Amino acid sequence: MAKDFKTLLRMRKWTLDDKRRELGEMMGVLENLISEKEALAQALIAEQKIASENPELVGFAYASFANAVITEREALDGHIAEQERKIDAFREEVADAFKDMKTVEIAERNRVEAERAEEDRKEQEELDEIGMRSATRDDGLM
Predict the structure, then answer these.
(1) Alpha helices (runs of H) in the chain, residue ranges in sequence order
(2) For residues 59 and 48, what is the distance between their CA atoms, to the nearest angstrom?
(3) I want to staple 101 with a disulfide (CB 3.0 to 4.6 A). Which of 3, 6, 12, 86 is the partner?
(4) Contact at 8 Å (CB) between 33 and 129?
(5) What's the CA gap between 3 and 95, in Å, rounded?
(6) CB-hemisphere CA count at 13 Å for 71?
(7) Residue 69 CB contacts under 8 Å (≥ 6 apart), including other chains
(8) Domain 1-140, what fold?
(9) Where is the composition biased (Basic and acidic residues) (predicted)?
(10) How many Å apart are CA 116 and CA 21, to the nearest integer?
(11) Model confidence over 95-122: pLDDT tens digits?
(12) Do residues 12 and 108 make contact, with C-beta atoms less than 8 angstroms apart?
């Protein structure tokens, strides 16, 4: 039975580790999306600076660039929001996997403690028996 609990606990830990790894990957995707959005904002600032320095040369091109940036930023915002929703939902799965692992861990600890208590009880019974025999012999010799 102990082997069953150890195997079950190992499986639960593996499942939890796998879910944590997957959550980390999802967080990495979110960080990449946020980095893309920040890079887009930096590109917009750089283009604004260039456009303000040479308005007659790039003024007409800046408008279409700005519209493209706005469209891209809105798309990134949507992807970021979707990824955040996925992460929130997956965090619940990670929490459930952790709860399952802890339940098995506690059950194993309780089983070991019960086994130890039973061994202690049997040992105490043997010591009591030895003590009673010793007392009986001592009474008989006096």
Answers:
(1) 2-53, 55-141
(2) 10
(3) 12
(4) no
(5) 25
(6) 6
(7) 40, 43, 44, 47
(8) Helix Hairpins (1.10.287)
(9) 109-124
(10) 37
(11) 999 999 999 999 989 999 999 999 999 9
(12) no
